[in-house]
Amino acid sequence: MEKTPFLNPSDFLEDETFLISFNIALICQRICDVQTKILKKYDLTPRQSLVLAYLRNHPEDKITQKILEDKMHLSNPTVTVIVQSMIGKGLIAKEKDTEDRRKYILHMTEKGKAALNNGRGESRAADERAYEGLSREDIDYLKSIMRRIMDNLIAEEKK
Question: Residue 104 belongs to what H/E stretch?
Answer without folding.
Answer: strand 104-108
